[in-house]
Amino acid sequence: MSESDTILSALADGVLSLTLNRPDKLNSFNEEMHLALRAGFERAHKDANVRAVLLTGAGRGFSAGQDLGDRDPRKGTPDLGHTIETFYNPLLRLIRSLEKPVICAVNGVAAGAGANIAFACDITLAARSARFIQAFAKIGLVPDSGGTWNLPRLVGEARAKALALTAEPLDAETAASWGLIWRAVDDDKLMEEATALAARLAAGPTKGLGLTKRAIQAAATNSLDEQLDLERDLQREAGHSVDYAEGVTAFLEKRKPEFKGR
Ligand code: T3D
Fold first, then answer.
1. Of 32, 59, 127, 240, which residue has the fewest beta carbons closer than 10 angstroms?
2. Mean pLDDT score, 233-241
3. Is 110 buried (19+), middle (13-18) or exposed (0-12) by CB count in 10 A?
4. CATH number of 206-252
């Protein structure tokens, strides 16, 4: 695990909380924060005690995307293909391939990669005061962190293009009504709700939840026939899990199930 204080990390009740922690820079990404966040998600992949992840930001913002202080053109032209390949793409792949729920609590402005990372999480809640900005258009860049893939799928091509080409801020209520996020909640209730949701999922049959995540993501590129075959295969796997046996036994014995994530 990385020792950097740019990511605050805590494990409680099976929930690994990862907090982006560069509040004076609106939690924009520098290399140190990238590496620390990656270490957090790698731990989530490997550590069986982690049953869900909760991602949020410290201070008044969620994340303003790339730290532009590290991109001063007067000091040279960076190879952004290299930085995407080295930092942003691995993070997106870690989030999407993690077969455990990833909850995102967007506590304030989410711009550029910050917005698209929030949209890549499994269940995203946002404070009512939060806004989402495809800031790339303001500086001549292209949406990254899966934005050009996720946006049209979540909101359709017309809205995706308008968001990406204008960089107009989108408020949390509208983001929820368009299906970009799960729910907008009162600012002072955000962390309470997000933490309770993450803890509830972490105590659930996380093996089955992980397979469900895999199936829903695969639907983006599968035909119906392929998806039906996948559902058969994943249901077979889920049917052999300890949690399935416990879930049905608890139902028959009229008691609360105790899921293990196996
Ligand atoms: O480069 C690559 O590797 C390719 C990948 C790119 C991915 C990307 O994310 S590109 C997009 C980069 N992000 C942006 O363009 C957003 C820039 N920020 C803003 O437009 C605004 O800050 C916000 C709309 C997000 C918030 O506005 P506001 O008025 O609430 O806050 P502010 O006053 O602008 O910012 C507060 C502080 O955070 C300020 O510092 P100061 O003046 O108090 O010392 C500001 O400079 C700093 N800050 C905000 N965003 C960034 C940042 N510092 C560095 N990088 C930032 N992205």
1. 240
2. 98
3. buried
4. 1.10.12
